[in-house]
Amino acid sequence: MALDNAYIQQQLTAQFGEDFFSFSESYGMLTAEFAKESNLKVLQFLYDEPSLAFRFLTDLCAVHNPDLEGKELCVVYHLHNLTENVRLRLKIYTSIQAPQVFTATRLFSSANWMERETYDFYGVNFTGHPNLKRVLNVDEMDYFPLRKEYPLEDQTRIDKDDEMFGRG
Asked: What is the extent of the structural domain holding 115?
């Protein structure tokens, strides 16, 4: 049996319940959203279940959505089943006031660097991470540069002509 999105959704729903997940599909890739408290259970199930075998963490990143109150930070996992060449996207949301998410470093060693980078730029604290510290920014930084907390441009500049930027 070929591994497809319908089967993956069926397996996740059977294991964790219908109301637990929200599914969508974009460009042929299944996306599942679920509670952050269950991220290790879900990742472990997808890794261990022989019919799924998502054993490669392709990417782990975050997105800052300042307009979603209580769900400002979204942590995104991209998993890959190498034998069937199927990819899966998982999303968990957390508030910016309590950005704690369980680390996946014991399951995927590649998560180590990706979680450090996500912490460095978005401030997501990966609970249980063996060495959670900044990777690319200086340790003295007291903010997280990829959060959308600052305007993109200095509004006080007078040397820019809005006509040249298509805003006039």
From this structure: 5-150
